[in-house]
Every structure is written in C-alpha cells, then in structure tokens.
# Entry
Amino acid sequence: MADKLITAAIVVVGVPAVLVGYIWATEQVLRVLPEGRKPRVRPWLWLGPALAFLAVFLIYPMIGTVVRSLQDSSGQNFVGLDNYAWFVGSSDALSALKNNVLWLVFLTLGVVALGLLVAVLVDRVRYETIAKSVIFVPLAISMVAASVIWLYMYQYKPEGAIQTGTLNAAIGVFGAGPVPWLQVQEFSVNTFMLILVMTWMWTGFAMVIISAALKGINPELMEAARVDGATEWQVFRGIVFPLLVPTLVVVSTTMIITALKAFDIVFTMTSGQLNTNVIANLMYSEMFKFGQYGRASAIAVVLLLAIVPIMFFNIGRFRQQEAVR
Amino acid sequence: MVRRFRWLAPLATLALVVGACTTTTTDGKTVTVIGTWTDAEQEAFLAMVAPWEAETGFTVKYQGTRSINDILAAGVPTGVLPDLAGLPGPGQMAEYAAAGALQPLDDVLDVATYESETASGLTSLGKVDGKTYGVFVKASVKGLIWYNPSLHEYGPSTPATWDELTAMGAANQGSADSLWCLGIESGDASGWPATDWIENILLRQAGPEVYNDWWAGNIPWTDPAIKTAFETYMEVVDNSYGGGTNAVATKFDLAGDPLFTSPPGCALFQQASFITGLGAFADATAGTDYNAFPFPAFNEQYANAVEGAGDLFGMFHATDAAKSLMKYLVTAEAQDIWVARGGALSANKNATSYPDEISTTMGGMIANAEALVFDASDQMPSAMNAAFWSHMVSLTSGSETVDEALDALQEVADDAYAQ
# Structure
C-alpha cells in the first residue's frame, strides 16, 4: 500500500513538474536562437511531445500491423500476400464485408435522415429541449447495454407462449408473429435489426449537430422567402437544405466511419452467427479467439484502407469550412 | 466552466495509476487465479479455498470470466498470465505446455497418490508426453437425460437404447407439448449445447475411437458416421418444444424450464450434470422434481462410454503459494466442499459428500467409466470449434441443411487443422 501511495505522489507532483520543466527547457533552448527564428521553432518544440506520442502509439503500431499482415500466425515467417488471399477467398470474410456495406449505406442514411427530420421538426415547437434530450439520451448508453436492451426488444418465444419480447408482444396484439427477428436471413433482416439499434443510438448525435447548424442560418433569409410567397417546403428545399449540406456531409462521413468500425452490437447480440458478421468482429475472432495474428492484421489493414479516403475527405471538408470563415 | 474543473485532472491521473497498480501486485503471499466460474460457482470455489487460506495464511485473488480462452490465448505470447488458471481443454493445455508457459506438476503433486485417487480417464487427459500439466478440480458428466417424475417416473428400468427411449418417451409424453426441450443460445459461445448432442450421439453410434479421430481431424466431416449423428440430432430438433427457431432463441440454462411448467412444454431434456445448479433446476428438489438417466446406447458395444468434462487446472507461475494451492485442490478434503453444495462432481474418488442420490450415481459414472472421452469440440482447434458452434446454430435455425453444414465445416477443417 505504501509504495502505491509513493507512486501516486510521484505522479501527482511529477507529471505537472515534468510538463512545466519541459516548457522551461524549451525556452532555454530558444534563448540561444536568433530572434527571427524563434516563432518558427517554438511550435515544433511545443508539439514535440504530442508528435512523439503519436509516433509511438499510432504510427509505429500501424507499420507493425502492415508488417504483421505479411507474416504467418506465429509471426516467424513472411508469407507474402497469403493473408490477403485468404481474406478474398473466405466466404466468411466476404459475408462480413457484404454486411459492412449494408451497415455503411443504411446506418448512414438512417441516422442522417432521421437526425435531419427531428432537428427540423423540433425547431418549430416549444418543448424543443425536452424532445432533443429524449432523443439524445441513447447516445449516452454504452453499446453493450444498448444491445442487451434490444435483445429484450427482439426476444422470441414459441407461438402460443406469452411473448416477453416487446416487438413480438406488440405485433401479437394484431394477431401477427411471433417473428425470430435475429434469425431471419432473408433480405438480411437480422442485420437490419442490428443496424436499427445503432441508428437508435446515433440519431441523437446527428440531430444535435444538424440542429446547431440550423440555428446558425440567418432567419432573415427565410423571412424574405416567405414574404415573397414561398411555401414551407420551398423554403426548406431552396434555402435550409443547401445551407445544411456541409454539416450533413460531416455527419455522414462520421457515420460511415462508425459503420465500418461496428463491433459491439454484433458481438453482443449475435456474435456474428447466422450471417450477421462484420469486419471488426471477424478481426477480433481471428486475433483473440484463433490466434491468427497475421490474418487479423490483414483485416485491420483492409479496414484502414477503407477508412483512409473518407478521413481525407472529412479533413478536406473541415479545411474548406475553416477557409469560408 | 472548464477552468473550474481543472484541478480534477491530476486526481484523474492519480485514480488511473492507483487502479493500474492494484491489478499488478504480487507479494508472494497472493495467488492469482482465473477461471470460468461466476456467481454460485465462484462462491463455491472461494468456499473451497477458504480452509487453505486459513491454514497457510496465503490469499487467493480470484477473477471469474467467460472469456478465458481469449485471455489465455493473448497471455501466453505476452507473458501476462495469472498464477493458476482454468484451462479450456486438453488441446489448449498441450499448446500452452509446448509454448513453455505451463509448469509441469510432477514435482508439485504426490503423483502416485493423485493417480490412485483420481479417475483414470481424467488423469490421462491432464498429461502431455507423460508429464502432468493439468489436474481436474471438479468434473461433470455430459449427455444426461433429465425428466420430471411427476409426468412419468422411469424408475430403475430406464431406456437402454435410443429406439427404446424414443418409443417410451412418446408413449409417456402425456400432456407435454413436445418430446424434447432444446436451447442452444449462450452468448458468443452459442451452439455448444448442440455440439454436445452431436458428440453424445456419435460416441454411442460409432464408438470412442471414431470420436477421438473425429475431433483430432483424422475423419472428414462428410464421413457417413458423422452425417448419421447429425441426422439423428435433426430428429431431436424436429421433436423439440417450439422447434429449431425456439432452440436458437433460448438460453441453454433456461432451456429445461418447460419441464416444470403446467402443462409441461416437454418431457425430456438433455444436458450435462451441472444443469442442476442453473435455471429452474436450482430451485427444484432432486428426485422429486427432477430425475435423470444416462444417455442411451445406439450400439450395445459402446454402452459404457461416457462423455465427461471437467475444469482442468494448470499452473503458470511456480510460486510457493501457487504450488501449495495446487496440492490442496486435488485432495478429497477440498473437493468435498464443492460437491456438497451440489452441481459438481468430484475428480477425486474419495470425495463423495454428494447432496443427493442422482449426484452420487453420476459421480460413480465418472469414477468407473470404461471409456471416458472429453468434450470433442473443446479439443478442436479454436477456429474449428467456433465454426462447429456457428454451423450448429444455422442448422438448428433451419437456414442450412445437414449436407451444407458438413461441407462448410470440412472447408473450415481443411484450413484449421493445417495451421
């Protein structure tokens, strides 16, 4: 116990001391430089620690992953592109890839459309704050907890027994069902049921961002249009929507990345069985369950390659917006 | 706002550091143990080690987790391992021993006494190249048929063959909705109860040799013997309460609950001996509310084959405290504490403080089995095991045929056994 307290004390006193010490030391270094060079060097010295952390915890593992993806499961021998060949030839991997595409398209569409709808509608009512809070709350729940909640929603009991699942109880009122929601593979119904959970969670996020952008639109623009005789739909179509496009793009790219990284819901609700697997869960299984570090790394690289263009697009968008300001 | 809470930052750092330290302490007096036991089983294990702690002054730091496979698979290459751990199965034990992570127990235990006291089927499963690396702390019998005596009491004349069982079962089904209860949902291990079905059927249709060749990868999945076992299982699915869809949607520990409803959902339920500690069984009384008989034979020749499972225990760090605990765990004195609580069978033949007659009979099955085989799926390569589970789920839900499932499994086997 005593040594723990000592460690804690060292950290509490030591960490700030090191930080202050570093800044002091950089100033000492800067003193010897000519006055004109100082403004150019100082940012790099201040950024130094952050860049070092980035290099150690992001760049180095990334390069390591790429190297690992070219090795066998033991990490002893190089096998060329075998792991990538496995990925392309494995029906499990391709089914996971197909599901990820469904996630990408329908999660993004669902979240953005619902978020926009709610943001525009609640903008016109007095109880806006309450309505927005209610829709935002699911985002605060952990993914696993949300999955467990929805497992109860989708619960299935045999026909004739009391339906304890919310959805089956609801359709039972009309004499329909019960439907084993997470087992229906026709039209990937079970995958859509999982996407619905994520949509439920993230709609609040899209709503908040879009709502903020909505507040930023100059009301005089809309007033002018209305005075000129535009209908509400024309105001939305001609003024509000075009001004929201940059925001919608940012929300969409964020959702695309979220969809590509989807893991928790699939792992908790179906563990990828019955053709609901996704890339991230496949990677987890290969690595931690099967010890196939090479294959898991190859999957990680594929996922990275899929995300990189979207990241660049997103950053480019941000830059454009900053430039406008 | 932000400024006002700045003083919290160092506190948060402190919390992180203290938290990190508590998980890495080793002072020589503590034995870190991880196992799959949670809830009631965790309590039983802690009760089991309590006398040892009182006697030696050492302490056990136990962590129960369902992801033991993942933790050990990640821990063996990195060296982040507990002192003692429950091992998933003999296959993984051999792997960890070959990697040099598991410590041999021949110098820790009094091997002669251990071997004379423990069922021979179990001691041989704990060996790699003649050295003992794993011991069994407790055991269970797989493939018992459970029934509710108030619906029909089978008494001593239990069905000896599968045909007899299906005939007697159907004749005495009474008000029960279906012959069988079935439930195979189990989180990310969903499907394992169905693999138990296949294993129990195959063991008694084709015998222990075919059984062992099968999990070792020496017999293809498309072999007629395997296909017959799968087809027998599909008959059970067709005669189960709520059908395959309900089986996939039902958690394994609650699957037997319809035995006790009125009218009953089913007349028979197949599960391992540990079910008595779970679901509606936990609150029911052995003998009056439920009873069990062994899985019947298909082929008379293999009538005395038993599928067992057990909690194989291995040592990763040979500290004095860990060695002392290992020595204690294999004794009858220790195992008696757990078996007296019910739901567990002892590995040590001298631990017989069973709470009821059913447990005593099952304990005898382990001690006297002519051929004791270990859970086949647990001994397959982990990718094979996961695919076996997953395809049993697809098959049971009706989204695959037997042939499709077997072809897909063989495809996985070609890859998994080659690694």
Observations:
- Chain B touches chain A at residues 10, 13-14, 17-18, 21-22, 69-70, 73-74, 187-188, 190-191, 241-243, 245-246, 248-249, 381-383, 386, 389-390, 393-394, 397, 399, 408, 411, 416, 419 (CB under 8 Å).
- The first helix of chain B runs from residue 8 to 22.
- The longest strand of chain B covers residues 305-315.
- Residues 44 and 89 of chain B are 21 Å apart (CA to CA).
